[in-house]
Amino acid sequence: MKSMTVKKALGLLRKHDISPIELVDMCHRRLKETTNLNYMVHNIPSQLLHKHARIAEQSYVKGSSKALDGIPVAFKDNFCMRNIPTTCASRMLLNYKPPYTATMVEKVAQAGGIIVGKTNMDEFAMGSGSVDSCYGPVVNPWNFALNLQGQESILDEESSLSDWFISGGSSGGSAAAVAAGACLAAFGSDTGGSTRNPASYCGLVGLKATYGLLSRHGMIPLVNSMDVPGIVTKTVEDSAILLNAVAGHDVRDSTTVQEKYAPFEIDDTFDVSKVYVGIPREFHTPGLSPEVLKLWKATADALEQAGAKVAEVSMPHAKHCLNCYHVLCCCEVASNFSRYTGIEFGLRCGSEESTEDLYAESRHHGFNDVVRGRILAGNFFLLRRNFDRFFLKAQRIRRLISNDFKAVFSSGIHFLLTPTTLTDAPSFSWFSQKDNRTRSAEQDIFTTAANMAGTPAVSLPLSNSQRGLPLSLQLMGPHFSESRLLSLAYWLEQQAHFQHLDLDFLDRK
Amino acid sequence: MAASTIKNAELFLNLASPLRLKHIRSSLSNSKYISVCSVCGSIHQRNFSKYSSAKLNQRVNIDKGGKPSHKGWHSIIGLEIHAQIKSASKLFSGAGTQFGMSPNTQVSLFDAAFPGTLPVLNQKCVQAAVRTAQALGCHINQVSKFDRKHYFYADMPAGYQITQQRHPLAVGGSLTYVFQCSTTSRVERRSARLLQIQLEQDSGKSLHDLENGISLIDLNRAGVGLMEIVTAPDFTSGDDAASFVKDLRDILVTLGTCDGRMAEGSMRVDANVSVHRPGDPLGTRTEVKNLNSTKNIRLAIDNEIERQIEVLENGGIIENETRSFDAEDGQTIAMRDKEKLLDYRFLPEPNLPPLVIHLDDSTVPSESSSLFVTLRRNGSGYDNFCLPEQQRLMLETKYGVPLIHSVVLVRHGLFDLYEKLVSNHNCDTRATTAILKTSYISFLDDQRVDATESPVTIQQLAQLIHIFQRGEISSSSLSIVLNELSVSSQLSCQTIIEEKGLWMVSSNEVILAAIDEVLTKNPQNVKSYKKGKVNQLKVFTTKVMKILEGKASASHIQSLIKDKLDKY
Q1: Inter-chain residue contact B351 with A255, CB threshold 8 Å
Q2: What is the pLDDT of residues B123-159, one digit of tens each?
Q3: Domains of chain A, first to last
Q4: What is the per-residue pLDDT across A351-380, written as a single tens digit (0 to 9) for each?
Q5: Measured between CB atoms, which of A216, A352, A380 is closest to B22?
Q6: Closest CA to B479 of B502, B495, B499
């Protein structure tokens, strides 16, 4: 499984070297072996997986296979699937089975992908550790690979770990599922870095496409104006394969772009010497670990040596990203979460003597403190007397941040190279010392800017830290530059020879 | 096209029974997590204050003739009219909009606010609103925007309404309407200014079963497109406001943008009412909500004016509050939750780009990422519509129909018929007016049909008018003939009149015989006439008319009687 990628699997399937059922079973077995990592919250029964695998097999027999035929894919638990629990890891939706299917899920299924399950996450995608879930935290599969005190106990259900590394979040379940080998690709959502952050900690490629390229229909929103379905894969090529399968206009999402999407392949002849790469100086912040800084410098040097022009650039408003994000996020959360009242769907509890009591009780029991806190803050920001001071101001700053990107990209810079996170994956004990808000501010520091501006960004693993965990960097480009962005990422990936997590020893047990 | 209408792609909820909630009191209060602000008010409030009292004073008290004096108080009324857009599907979803369907059978997942669903703007609704705005002389904003207006209410599943209150589709404009006094026969033209027209979603319905202590929620109406038409505070009385709404309704129906069925809730009116003494600043306003007939508009406003005056005369103060109208006892009642407690916490709707209106395809940029709607000037044919005011003016100027009658003819949709009768069938204008405004309208009412569905053909009607204008049939016989025509359409008017014996008595001999009879039987009256009591003539005429069963001209009878008596 270690070396199994979407691209490789498709090749083997076409050559009939492996059957879709074998592939699905491999993933399913891995899922069973790693249940203690707690990354999957709903498994599709293997009978159903086999049914889909047989359909895929037919396509290969007939030689009429589709883009993802037989490829096991997981979805974060905020993508709606008809009649399948979709909970957002919240008590509010524990009983909820959506009566419809999200466009992303539909497109993957139409392309022949086999959906293996729904992945764990921070409740309603609010968080960056995948520890604030009603199902409990996600454990980073890289804990297996390290010579840690708890390594054996992960495999032992009886004892609990003293400490372990988190997967990052909020799409930690999706990243862990791919890293562990329970699927070959997974979808997360990315509002302020929620796909890139766990991809970075789990040693995977995390793509946040341009806002408007992927449909949000059926993806339960956090911040509508920033949410983008995220793609987690082992390699850059896989990322492009998945993107090609799902990108494009959706009549059910008015914010998707009209232009017909042109699928692309990674350009392996990409000429790095013609590339201008910007290094935003504001991203050199306190708290950046020496290891990440070293990798950042080394990567810039490698680009320069290959003939690329690398220049320091300034994005003066980047430092306001987090505060601005916080205000806008809370405002949209306050609004989006007004619908969770227990009337039409979801948790309903409390006195039915009055509407207010019913709402209050249902919302009190349904949401965790993080969600309730953001709702409260958002409603405060949106009050008539506060609207201009908070919401409007934040929107103006958002425009300035977006203009920073425009200015940089119109000055001749093609791409920006930054860290994805300050460090490698933090330990659970360290992470839980501070509250969700503090941790989100630290974790999202390099990633929110792209959500503010709607630009595409990809995080890719390039090296390992001293303790053996993945270290990643982020590339950002102008709107709709995915093709070139991923081609550059591919070039870096080829230089780095990053070694993916090898859990194949589990199969030999 | 960004703003394409969803057709079959959408799944629909089809709940067999209404969503049941045990004893849910309807209320506008927020749940305990939502902090509420003490300040509230909509943009309308701000707009209202723009108009100075002095300017308004020019308009006030013009209803003196028709209304009892308000002890020196002036009343000011502004209206918000919610007109449901006539469209097969809802404003942002593909669910149907038909009235009277089983509860919760016309509900898409979006209408029920299922998480992850997104609004898709219905172009038909935009086109209807633009057509309405153009007819009312509004300025169409090329770019308008959608906001979320938040409040918790069981029949509003998302917890917010999508509205254009802050960046409306159209602003300005005015409407010339005919003021009709309900107590006198006074009619006159007036004009009211419009502030804006905005698109917004309708809410669902809560049905409170007090006996069993439960509330039921029907979401069939949730998400139906509304045009909210906001007027300036240009009205002075219930009659005034009701007259305006009647005319507006006629316009919307003519345009085909709203079916105008107030009884079904297709048009609902909120009235902002305040009173003040001339020269003083405007008084505090109250808002009387959800008036669903022109009669209730009149009664509610007049009652609210009276109430405010009484409160103020007794030294009280008027609170800025929302009131409802109880049609049973004719009183406005304060609603439990005061509007001033609500802060709607407006938020730009993030799932809908700004709406851009293009007058034709040529101005649409090729790479537009916004929602846009193009108006096909030709083909939709709305420029060719003749609106009610134009129809009235035509009747008045071309055919000399007085305003008091043209209002009635136009309201009943008889303009086309009138034109054809006069122009193509050589009917006399006065006779045509006389027949259409009374006998023909009550005939249509009895048949429960509107003008376009009349069982009587225009040829038959023209024939009848010709007979009438020659004085060969009396007005009291008209309805008999019309009813007969509707039953046996193959018969001609002549045949019916013949068979029913409705011809006017043209022979003087018959009339004179009747006169002789009357005069002989009433010698006392003849005496008093001779003494100078001229009004006895009318008494005689009535009696003669009775003998002749109304089939003679009253003036002719009268002159014959006079001749006879003078010869006595």
Answers
A1: yes
A2: 999 999 999 999 999 999 999 999 999 998 888 999 9
A3: 6-271+476-506 (3.90.1300.10)
A4: 878 888 899 999 999 999 999 999 999 999
A5: A352
A6: B502
